[in-house]
Amino acid sequence: MIAEAPSPIWAIGGGKDLAIEGGRPIRNTYLPYGRQSVSDQDIEAVAGVLRGDWLTQGPKVAELERAVAEAAGAGYGVAVANGTAALHAAVVAAGVGAGDEVITSPLTFVASANAALYAGAQVRFADVDPRTGNIDPEAVERAITPKTRAVVAVDFAGHPCDWDRLSRLALTHDICLIADGAHSLGANYRGRPVGSLADMTALSFHPVKLICAGEGGMVVTNSEELAGRAARFRTHGITRNAGEMEDDEGGWWYEMQELGFNYRMSDVQCALALSQLGRRQEFLERRRSIAAAYDQALRGWEMLEIPWRETDTEPAWHLYAIRLNLGRLSVGRREVFEALRAENIGVQVHYIPVHLQPYYRNSFGFKRGDFPRAEQFYERELSLPIFPAMRDGDVRDVADGVRKVLTRYRR
Ligand SMILES: *Cc1c(COP(=O)(O)O)cnc(C)c1O
Asked: Residues with Cβ < 8 Å from 268, sequence gap 6 or more?
């Protein structure tokens, strides 16, 4: 538990004047919105690999695949170079190609949509649920056409999507359901872990995510066939399995049967991720207690909305996303963002809607107003720092900083 801050808060932290107006900041050092926690034990695990025989494709890859799949309630894991590669591999394993359409959320990192483009498919966006920022199953249903091959649904901020409704849609329309679980490893939905809810789940081990590998990612699935396709795709489309090959001219023989990539994750990276995976409960608990402390400190402040919570899900709290009630403020989100940065609180914004990126606007004709709920979510959103290594004092600084800035700008 994190103790409540004494009041009035700025008696101890910064002064009453905002740092951006020349006052004393809430804290002297910059607090980022997310960062990795690497322990001595993690470092030892990596050093062990560096002293050994394999830098890539050694035993740590399979060990990590088994461990992550088990943690995610899936039968198979395919480790890849990063979360984007995991999305790409999943989309290709789903059989997506030229002429197909893939539906995803506009409120996400560009990778969720780009994966479909890499595969030669068209992206269709479906607008979000305004409470959660997750893709709205009704909007998905409206976006389905005879060309729809897959849905990539993103568990925004680590809050699972409405997977039961998405699964029913996927079944009815014979569509492959892919979870972008970059935020939600460790989350539960109606008693089931993220990783067991979609046909395939793409995970990221980027340093701001739940567990880190430097760069790394994984496709987890319960389908042996999908796992096999993703595994071939990660290494040039090459197989050495006797049962799969057309010929066999000797012990050197392998076959490239389709076009793939070098998307492998190294043993060095896998050793770090494996050691981190052992600490995931500690990471999750810390994220949950920070979220609870923010809820307590900020609930009832009419200048903002705290994150929505579904009753039957346990989020992984990758982000703590507040939304400003701009009608109650004398300034816009930009001024609040800059004022908090000046207080040394590393707020961020998630996400610039993908359809508004110049590449998407210019290549496909998307425009402002196309997905109004994602746009409104974005316009009001601020992500507060949340990561396991934050100390109780850091958490209080953030809450104090938000209250200080919003009090000053209250209308
Ligand atoms: C981080 C992230 C990715 C991409 O993961 P990388 O490992 O950085 O390639 C994809 N989707 C979402 C929602 C993410 O947050």
From this structure: 46, 49, 50, 55, 56
Neighbours of 55 (CB within 10 A): 12
Among 110, 160, 106, smallest CA distance to 128 is for 106
Q: Is the previous residue joined to 254 through a cis bond, with omega within 30 degrees of 0?
A: no
**Ligand 1 centre distance from Cα of residue 112 (Å):** 8
Which residue among 84, 123, 155, 354 is best mutated to probe the pocket of ligand 1, counting the most ligand atoms within 8 A of its Cβ? 84
Identity of the residue numbered 261: F
Which tens digit of pLDDT belongs to each residue from 305-360? 999 999 899 999 999 999 999 999 999 999 999 999 999 999 999 999 999 999 99
Q: Does any ligand 1 atom lie closer than 6 A to the CB of residue 374?
A: no
Question: What residues does 320 pair with on adjacent strands?
Answer: 384
Measured by CA distance, the residue closest to atom 7 of ligand 1 is 83
| 161-171 pLDDT, tens digit each | 999 999 999 99
Which ligand 1 atom sits nearest the alpha carbon of residue 204? 7
Ligand 1 contact, 319 CB (< 6 A)? no
* Model pTM score: 0.96
Rounded-to-integer distance, Cα 149 and Cα 395, Å? 43
Q: pLDDT-derived band of residue 134, with 50, 70 and 90 as boundaries?
A: very high
Which tokens belong to 24?
A: 């004393």
Between β-strands 238-239 and 255-256, what pairing exists: parallel, antiparallel or unpaired?
Answer: antiparallel
